[in-house]
Design brief:
The chain has 329 residues and is of the alpha+beta class. It has ten helices and twelve strands. GO terms for molecular function: catalytic activity.
Amino acid sequence: MATQIKQCPTPPNEADRLRALRAYDILDSQPEIDFDTLTRLAANALNMPAAVIGLMDADRLWFKSELGLGVPQLDRKIAFCAYAVLSPQELLIVEDLRLDARFKDNPLVTQAPYLRFYAGAALIDPQGYALGTIAVVDTSPRTLSETQGLMLKDLSKLVITALESRYRAILLENLAMTDHLTGLANRARFERTLNSEIAHFRVTGKSFTVFYMDLDNFKIINDTYGHSAGDEVLVEVAHLISKQVRTEDLPARLGGDEFGIFMREDNKGLTESLAKRIVDTVTKPITLTTGHQVSIGISIGIATYSDDTQTVDTLMGLADQALYIDKRN
């Protein structure tokens, strides 16, 4: 009969803890040198063969950095770190995992890699939530001195500092890549995305589609009702476009009354359907906060990237030509 692993209870603030973790947008991100350095430092300073920085998701312990284990994550049911998160103010030190009722039947202990020692310090964010741990393990029983324990706690604080720094950098980058009026991606982010997809195309040959759009009669609204009314229209159009695209598409305001959409494929049926939906929704009357109703049109140019000699400029030039033809029709 299979041995039952003792299940660790979840923290009483689990829902809030998970929200705090996910706000950092770090799960499943690429390796980063700041975290890898701290993992290596933990292993070397404590003379351990393996160390991890693990973030405790709802059903897994995902490793932002790991040294010596060779796996990207663990099922939460068998993660020793689940107990460290449960009592975050205390170091969790298990000198011999085989002698601890919580862990003696754990497959990490009874099977490869046959772990015998664990020490983990919780990663406590500024709000007090335990996001995960920095931990060291060994295949032999051992002890951890008081000085080593303090060092592990200090390393946990450095991990949080790195995490906060990363979060602030992402926020600043997002601000720099966002149109402040509409909340859509701005031209810089749109073009960066296209450059990335062009590089991807050169590896995979997977085509993609670009929409280039501008509003008809927008100047009349600005001249008649003022720029604040024009801003209202731009915000509403951005909202209407956003409602029509899929999560994998990227809508953007490119400047003035110009908008764009990046579609991660070349599918004539999908592009035609999206264009029709945008025209149908955007051309309905818009009621301003002043009570006035205004109507606008929208012209759409569509271009597909299927030639690796093209650049972002040439692709957008093709979309602009298609836009000009649409305006004439």
